[in-house]
Amino acid sequence: MTHFSPLPMADAPRERSDAARNRDAVMCAAARLVTELGVDAVTMDRVAAEACVGKGTVFRRFGSRAGLMAAVLNGAETEFQERVISGPPPLGPGAGTAERLLAFGPARLRQNLLHGALLEAAASIHGRSHAAYSFNLLHVRHLLAELEVGGDLPLLAAALLSPLEVPVLRSQVEVQHLPVERLEAAWVDLARRVAGL
Fold first, then answer.
1. Which domains does the chain possess?
2. Quick one: average pLDDT of 13-36?
3. What's the rounded mean pLDDT across residues 159-183?
4. What is the pTM of this model?
């Protein structure tokens, strides 16, 4: 029986260095434009010009504006998840479970408000980011389990995430003009009640 080493195959597809540079330039340009101008002002033409690549390059790589926005959003979501998994307490490890739970809601709330337009732009074709939602759901469920909360933990975790959804937050902040601090305090109160803290 022949033994194969776990080394990558020589003919495995690799990204060309110029394609990698173009991708990085487009991603940096798109993220910068979203930050400086807002999502609504970001077009494929503008991103291509800012990245010094052809518009066709952007479309070939990301498929559509929604695809590009989803890629930018993925970067922001990855950073948030890293803060939860390995960042400083109380959001990251090192704090007690109750502290982590009570820190999560306000952090997720502010993340969703900060990237609300980006989330909506990415969702216009791709729908809600199930990977991001699943991460949040599993994290909250895990914390509730560690706190030995009784009941249907998947549904309790989903109930805690519902007030953090972008449409809910936008209505409260932009239509009802509720201060963000009030929304954070209300979420912490809800989490305390659910977790029996």
1. 16-63 (1.10.10.60), 64-195 (1.10.357)
2. 78
3. 94
4. 0.71
